[in-house]
Write a structure and sequence with these properties.
The complex is a heterodimer of chains A (284) and B (160). Chain A is built from twelve helices and 14 strands. Chain A is of the alpha+beta class and 284 residues long. In chain A, strand 11 and strand 12 form a beta hairpin. The chains are: A alpha+beta (284), B alpha+beta (160). At the A-B interface, strand 1, helix 2, strand 3 and helix 6 of A face strand 4 of B. The structure holds FE2/S2 (inorganic) cluster (FES) (2 copies). The site of one FE2/S2 (inorganic) cluster (FES) has 12 residues of chain B, from loops.
């Protein structure tokens, strides 16, 4: 047994989970455990209490209602990838889920866990930012909704209060185009760069662009200058935006790749996204 | 009100047999299977979710047993590599592994077999599906092609 000793509880309700969190400031939530259990094994995390959400029935399930795709926080990546509903209303989201790690991890890992973990090289935070998604959270003091832009504060940091539990993730399905792509050194690894983009296409022009990058920079981030440079342009007329994206982000260097390499990869991912936009607008 | 505790009681069905045990909450499922139940067919390579050696089936879906606490499997049905053969007779998938020399040291094999088992149970996979599923496993010996070939032949034989 490699992980430190902790006390464990598996409440049946969100309210109970919140009060367990409030009772112990070193408590942590356990969702699918695909990030937390290795952190425990490596002793990078040492919570005194683990509050497991697996027995809270209200946290799973996928619905589509009034233009919002709502994913229960404990919904696994695998069930999102395979959901006929998601494949129907937002196939790009099902495909994004399939980019995460390996099938054997996707069967257990959850969207709520991944969002709360806020790894700088994870897919969901980028998707949420680009889609202007929200998370619904509940704490001892009540419930609220947090937009992706207000949620991610930095690598492994969110604006969640210590006693708050993410109950679901909401993604607007409003006819905007969605594109998610990434590059991994080995299939299933963390992305060296992950790019998520949403936009409107009208008369062959791109408008209302939201562009998010993860993996290539220290934390998941929007790229406002590239977005502005793309606004109102045709996909083929995007050199300014490509230059802006390369210049405005601070790309990270580590053993997996240099900053220059990550910048090049991000540029390539952006070009692919633009090529797809060109095909979608029928004037590639 | 659920009281947090360091010890937990778990009830699982493993390869068709029911077990009830009191374990430490921090005990991983891989250690539980090997050390508590003596099912040492499941191998532990990296113990943090990278290699796939510890893959088992939980309610028919492949998962890494080193990335699960035993208590997370409470009430679930688990299958390990020990469930595949009947007596001394190998399953068709195992026989294909033997035929194609899909193992050398064998350390990774239990994990590959369990992921492949789940894949074959889902239907008729293409070679691409096989590669995608097996990409979650490391093998330091075979170079993978024999493993993919073995699963492909097993898929072709599968009555579906
Ligand atoms: S031992 Fe579990 S993935 Fe390596
Ligand atoms: S046969 Fe040795 S690691 Fe795969």
């Amino acid at each position: 047994m490699k992980s430190p000793v902790f006390a464990y509880a598996a409440p049946n309700t969100v309210a109970e989970a919140c009060s367990l969190l409030a009772d112990d400031e070193d408590a942590k939530l356990l969702a699918g455990g695909q990030s937390l259990v290795p952190l425990l094994a490596l002793r990078l995390a040492a919570p005194t209490t683990l509050v497991d959400l697996r027995l809270v029935p209200a946290l799973t399930g996928i619905t589509h209602d009034q233009g919002v795709l709502r994913l229960g926080a404990m919904t696994t990546h695998r069930s999102i990838e395979r959901s006929p509903l998601v494949q129907d209303v937002a196939p790009a989201i099902a495909e994004a889920a399939a980019l995460i790690a390996h099938p054997q991890v996707r069967t257990r890992g959850t969207i709520g866990g991944a969002v709360a973990h806020a790894d700088a090289a994870a897919e969901w935070p980028a998707v949420l930012l680009a889609m202007d998604g929200h998370v619904e959270v509940t704490g001892t003091g009540g419930s609220r909704s947090i937009s992706a832009g207000d949620l991610f504060m930095g690598p492994f940091m969110t604006s969640l209060e210590p006693d708050e539990v993410i109950t679901s993730v909401s993604l607007p399905i409003d006819g905007r185009e969605i594109w998610v792509d990434e590059h991994q050194r080995r299939h299933g690894d963390y992305g060296l760069s992950i790019l998520a983009m949403t936009y409107q296409l009208s008369d062959g022009l791109i408008t209302d662009v939201r562009l998010a990058v993860a993996g290539a920079t220290g934390s998941v981030t929007r790229a406002p200058e590239a977005e502005a440079a793309l606004e109102g342009r045709a996909p083929a007329d995007s050199n300014d935006a490509i230059t802006a994206l390369a210049a405005e982000l601070s790309y990270t260097s580590d053993i997996h790749g240099s900053a220059d390499y990550r910048r090049d990869i991000t540029t390539t991912l952006f070009q692919r996204a633009l090529r797809a936009a060109g095909e979608r607008s029928g004037q590639a | 009100m659920t009281q947090p505790a360091e010890h937990v009681s778990v009830q699982v069905e493993v390869n068709g047999r029911r077990y009830q045990r009191s374990v430490m909450a921090r005990l991983t499922l891989s250690d539980f299977l090997r050390d508590e139940l003596g099912l040492t067919g499941t191998k532990v390579g990296c113990e943090h979710g990278v290699c796939g050696a510890c893959t088992i089936l939980i309610d028919d879906e492949p998962a890494r047993s080193c990335l699960m606490l035993t208590v997370q499997a409470d009430g679930k049905k688990i299958r390990t590599v020990e469930s595949l053969a009947s007596g001394r007779e190998m399953s068709p998938l195992q026989a294909c592994f033997q035929k194609h020399h899909a193992l050398q040291c064998g350390f990774c094999t239990a994990g590959f077999l369990m992921s492949a088992t789940a894949l074959l149970e889902e239907g008729q996979p293409t070679r691409e599906d096989i590669v995608e599923t097996l990409s979650g496993h490391y093998c330091r010996c075979t170079g993978y092609s024999p493993i993919i070939d073995a699963v492909e032949e097993a898929a072709a034989k599968e009555p579906s």
